[in-house]
Amino acid sequence: MKITTLLTIGIGIAMVTTATAQLKVLQNGNTTIGGGNSSFPYSQTKLSVNGSTSLKSSLEIMNLNNSNVGWGGQIRFTPNDLRGINHIIADNGAHEMILFPGYSQSNSALRRVTLYGGLSVYGYSYLAGGAYFSDKNLKENVTKLEGSLEKVMKLQGVYFNWKRQIIKKTGDKEVNIAEGLPKGRQLGFIAQEVEQVIPEIVHSAKDGYKSLEYHTMTALLVEAIKEQQSQIRLLEEKISGLNNKTEEDFDNPNKNSDDTISLSQNIPNPFGVHTQIKYSLPKSYGSGNLLISDLSGKEIITLLLKPGTNQILDISSDRLQNGIYLYSMVVNGKVRVTKRFVVSK
Questions:
Q1: CATH class of the structural domain 256-343
Q2: Which has the closest alpha carbon to 299: 335, 327, 337, 270?
Q3: Mean pLDDT, to the nearest integer, of 89-112?
Q4: How do 334-343 and 274-281 pair as beta strands?
């Protein structure tokens, strides 16, 4: 009986150690399956498999480095020439997963990770540089943006804080997806509000949460600035025409100075707290108003002008933010003179 058993074991060992066997145990105790590679660096691996491997269960990779140093558990994708090894480091000891493409490639610009498909990240991500595809060869149905300024004026920027606990069930586990979100006061937009104005840049994930393409808003802002500059140029042309007409009135010697409307440049300009504007409004015109507006033409302050010559009006910056403003003399419902001042607190 013992002889039979020993013979059986001997035959079995002979079968698995032959060069053509599907399962081969090397003299150093390492094992190859399906003719797995036993050359360097595989000669140091405990198991080498040549062919597809299917696991009908989870795969756990543990760092068996008892010194607690190094990169931890790793998955390595190595080409036949053993160059350009790609690492996936499952845990570096700091609860991090690291992708290290082309470990042996000295030129870091050539190390790339390509992803075809979407990526959802519940947490803060760091980026030292990067670019978005914008090649015309990837686009069609290209049309110009219109009404950008109107859309920008409808947007409302807000301050906010991310919630600290939002439980999402993943399989049989519950995960707090808000745990990795940035802490402290944030600023941005509310996606649902932006969707009412610019629905093209708002998207809904499978879990229902909405995301916002902040980078695409650059195009909208550029066009809005261009529209605003066009409005400013039109206002400047109107102001220039009004000023020229006023100067013609001043230069007309046949006119009585008591009947001339005038509006001087404010002093000081720019100003931080107070400034004064000298004006003349003949009594024959009755009373008038000084209209202060922003560069878009939006009325901000209206002040009463008393009739008389060499009048002085004191202006306070309490209701004004830093910026450039227009101030106009309005008499009998018509703008007679317009000038600018700058508030710099």
A1: mainly beta
A2: 327
A3: 70
A4: unpaired
